């Protein structure tokens, strides 16, 4: 921790800060310049509370120097981690595109969707049975019936399934229906009790970034899961909220190289929710792969015009197939495969 | 719903939009200008999905005209609502300042805090037993023991208590310990399952605005609670996330007059979390009352330097008392009381 | 400057940083902890470039400790400054409300406006002759003719005039027409050549905050003016750009106490541009004064419905008069006058 | 223009809106639903002022339907435009990477830089002679001497030069020194007088996006230039300001496909200023090209450690050369060349 004293701070004020540092079991290093006194607190910073130093008389500002995330930090595991889902690796040289509809609607819709996902060359499938909707009057998902349709459709192609968990009380049901990857949605990135619970199960978790989640908060949200024992975490960038109103969110591609440097865990991107329009998806998907993402989460619907939600952002099966071709060429250009 | 067609949209494209409107049981009004065709869909807009129109060929953009919140809308209840907490009205001419520590620490701390809250002239008390913390390694609150300390301290002064609920599974415990007002924190503004549950109980709810929650999303989050039957909802502005890094959040005072116009429910402000520093609290609290807020949620600790969390943002008992005096004068200036 | 080394930084890397510090004529203080090495560079920090240290091998991050603004800093002038405009003080105990129309339209409109400004008890008048408009096809202001109308109207009431300068080449004209206060608009907060020029003249300057200007950038923009010799600078908060779309900008009241602490110069607020709607202005104006602002810049039009620009945000003469009454009561409540 | 009336608006209020529409020479279309009345104003919308309708009694909200930019709109020129700079096309199938140092420092530095730019296969060169700096005490550029060094270095390789114009009064000097492409910086995106002036000369202009410039404002800023007669405009995305503090700006790749749809003009990206760190540049540059950008503006310095400004964001000559190889492969993958 570094404490910068105010201009003209007195010797007593400096002494008081030093006393507080020692009382916490750390050591101080005092640097006196012509204008400013800077005090470093050396030792286990987790024993210190920034706020308690900031209110000491004469203190200008206080900043931490060590990271508050440990298990998910690349420092703890310099080589990258590959999360395995029924034998399929996420985070390795092969890029994984997880495709499927926004919401599970009918068995037939899911069967056709699963065929299209497999035909396009994707190895995992997505679909929502429980839907977080801004309005209480919007379609909230089929629930458990949706899980049934989804599993029935996906198993015909041996596609592992990815679906969102919103309510802690449904976790047992997810285990029972053998959901392969649990998705935590953007609005739940800091639903700490939910994070703790998925930290106790042995299933890979996709952790979406909150609408205005900082990189640091996101890493700490993952640390909540990891601290429970579950290290199979996949970060998913899905666009952030900004001042721009011409599109729903701003896909933050810079997060990709930054996360890859900060954490050993895989990073994927959801270009569908980021832009909010199907016609933007190819450009955003291509950008994500070119920037180093380990995979994508893409919405595809057998017949977008009839989708029960987010109709305007789903690709058609043909569009998905075409996109997979372009992504393959880009993957090759940067030394990866798809 | 209003559908603006693209420049040069064909008659067939217009006809197709009209057909979709009729198929949904609504009526169309087509306005043909020299350059543009605009189509209005008249009837129950909730039957229409914006996305499904946006992907029709020739459509430029689609916008809703009716509000998606009904029960919380001022249209449904033109006079303002007063939420009663054990006889104390929130939303009436009298302004309510809810004060207390960030977190419950010990019985002694809570006893002194309750004395100070009452002595300052406040009529309700706040305190956290379950704490949402960004880091999994930070103090997470005393839990149920904290509720016990809190009630014991507050009852000596007959102060109704306000505390945060994070986990659905704790709701029964909150009812058992007779928590007077349930607070939903900023990070849970769109935890829809939690909102639905507090919609089923008969307790006033303080709904904090999400870190980047829009006015519209916030109103719809309240509608989730109201739709369950619980209409005793109090909005709490607590600062929003912006580009500015000189302070933690930006207190959005504009939200006060805007919410008072959009909803009949009371609006309070948390100046402590907004600014993040105790020295900013008086200015922000004064601004909130002057802008028309119905109350405040203020952090006060018997001894801020020793607080277990957010030490730098708590007022001392003396500072709270002094602030109450200034707020009283401002309340009088705008025709209210405290 | 504080340099935090990476975990596992080598002794050679530390030595290289130290060497760079010494080469710049400063002294180093090296703090070695169990995990981290932190290096302080003590001396005149302005000799150092953060970027050149950030790219040295083994460096994790670098931060400045001294402020980059000197003349405008409160450190240089602990008592507050009062800017005088023809004998009227801005920044003293008396609050100044500067009112008038968005744009100068006709001599008659300005005459009626000046009468209303004086009748409401305001002591300065605002009005735009050169207008920054987002669209090149919108009304751009009357130009020099506008200055003539404005001065003719204001002089009858001895009201000093405030008007915006957009183009460096018009500065001589402003001096010739004896504009009393030069306003630099939000879009020009970092138009550095314009700032340098107004730094060379002997006229008070109102410096509006940029749409997404940070407190720190704003202070440095003022320092550009001050460095030229003109210390008569007034900061004007006018709302910042955020994700919220329910209103034009978010009035940042927190900026008021923060600026008053950082600088000795006066701080005023423009509630009209902040909210963008006349009905929001009273609440925002009241909040600004209650939070400690030294004055306001308010739009008032003799007949808002006929205004040539921003018709929806101007108060009528009656509304202004009523607002002045409420503001007077709030000023009294916080120990000031109006 | 579409006017949505308030719930319970009276017939008189509707009639008054209609009257205002007719008075402006347009035609009204009134759509009466069970709950709402919506009025369309058909005709030349530029004759109408949104604000004047918003304050009419009974009006809920008003929105424009036509775009306020004409010349730069793709509607006016459905095929894309190629801007030619001494025979080199920007906006065609060939991607252009414009590289060079942040600021011109010495003749030797520029000579080495020009050699490296040409050796890497780039066809245009960038360099700053006039620098916009946040602090008045930072290096402000070499000025005219910088232009001389720059031209002397670039001419040896026949590289057209790109450099920033900040001050209107320097435009003649830019013409005299035969600057090939005039760059308008982010802080001047809405310096309308500067835009008007560069609209009058016959030189290509790179218009950078403002720190928080919306797509719509950016298009209208370009329209200011185009309205003066200069249609050789190149948009340059350089990252936007958001809540994230882990990197300087957020590169908005979504702006690329959206601009390509809205305007016929070329779109390039500056990955150096977006991320702010050299190690982020390859990922961001790759993302930009994969998303469809027509070119890049990249900082390269012969010896980044010695750069006079932005040392931490410049690529070395070797890094630039390597990046060009990867970009070439990505260009091929999406059917373009470099």
UniProtKB/TrEMBL annotation, chains A, B, C, D:
<feature type="domain" description="DAHP synthetase I/KDSA">
    <location>
        <begin position="88"/>
        <end position="324"/>
    </location>
</feature>
<protein>
    <submittedName>
        <fullName>3-deoxy-7-phosphoheptulonate synthase</fullName>
        <ecNumber>2.5.1.54</ecNumber>
    </submittedName>
</protein>
<dbReference type="Pfam" id="PF18152">
    <property type="entry name" value="DAHP_snth_FXD"/>
</dbReference>
<dbReference type="InterPro" id="IPR006218">
    <property type="entry name" value="DAHP1/KDSA"/>
</dbReference>
<dbReference type="InterPro" id="IPR052899">
    <property type="entry name" value="Class-I_DAHP_synthase"/>
</dbReference>
<dbReference type="Pfam" id="PF00793">
    <property type="entry name" value="DAHP_synth_1"/>
</dbReference>
<dbReference type="GO" id="GO:0016832">
    <property type="term" value="F:aldehyde-lyase activity"/>
</dbReference>
<dbReference type="GO" id="GO:0009073">
    <property type="term" value="P:aromatic amino acid family biosynthetic process"/>
</dbReference>
<dbReference type="GO" id="GO:0003849">
    <property type="term" value="F:3-deoxy-7-phosphoheptulonate synthase activity"/>
</dbReference>
<keyword id="KW-0808">Transferase</keyword>
<dbReference type="InterPro" id="IPR041071">
    <property type="entry name" value="DAHP_snth_FXD"/>
</dbReference>
<dbReference type="InterPro" id="IPR006268">
    <property type="entry name" value="DAHP_syn_2"/>
</dbReference>
<dbReference type="InterPro" id="IPR013785">
    <property type="entry name" value="Aldolase_TIM"/>
</dbReference>
<feature type="domain" description="DAHP synthase ferredoxin-like">
    <location>
        <begin position="1"/>
        <end position="67"/>
    </location>
</feature>
């Amino acid at each position: 921790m570094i404490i910068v004293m105010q201009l003209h701070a007195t010797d007593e004020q400096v002494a008081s800060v030093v006393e507080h540092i020692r009382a916490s079991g750390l050591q101080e290093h005092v640097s006196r310049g012509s204008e400013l006194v800077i005090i470093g607190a050396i030792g286990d910073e987790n024993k210190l509370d920034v706020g308690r130093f900031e209110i000491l008389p004469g203190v200008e500002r206080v900043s931490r120097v060590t990271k508050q995330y440990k298990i998910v930090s690349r420092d703890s595991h310099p080589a990258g981690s590959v999360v395995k889902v029924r034998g399929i690796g996420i985070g390795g040289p092969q890029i994984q595109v997880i495709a499927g509809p926004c919401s599970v609607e009918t068995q037939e819709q899911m069967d056709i969707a699963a065929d299209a996902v497999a035909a396009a060359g994707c190895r995992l499938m997505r679909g929502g049975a429980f839907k977080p909707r801004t309005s209480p009057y919007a379609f909230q998902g089929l629930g458990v019936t949706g899980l049934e349709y989804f599993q029935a459709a996906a198993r015909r192609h041996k596609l592992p399934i990815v679906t969102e968990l919103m309510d802690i009380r449904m976790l047992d049901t997810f285990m029972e229906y053998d959901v392969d990857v649990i998705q935590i949605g953007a609005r739940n990135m800091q639903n700490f009790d939910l994070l703790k619970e998925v930290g106790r199960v042995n299933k890979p978790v996709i952790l979406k970034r909150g609408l205005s989640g900082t990189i640091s908060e996101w890493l700490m949200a993952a640390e909540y899961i990891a601290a429970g024992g579950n290290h199979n975490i996949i970060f998913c960038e899905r666009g952030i909220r900004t001042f721009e109103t011409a599109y729903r969110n701003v896909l933050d591609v810079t997060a990709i190289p930054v996360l890859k440097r900060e954490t050993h865990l895989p990073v994927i991107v959801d270009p569908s929710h980021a832009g909010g329009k199907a016609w933007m998806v190819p450009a955003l998907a291509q950008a994500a792969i070119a920037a180093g993402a380990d995979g994508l989460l893409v919405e595809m619907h057998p017949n977008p015009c009839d989708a029960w939600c987010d109709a305007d952002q789903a690709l058609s099966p043909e569009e998905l197939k075409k996109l997979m071709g372009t992504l393959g060429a880009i993957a090759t250009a940067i030394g990866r495969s798809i």
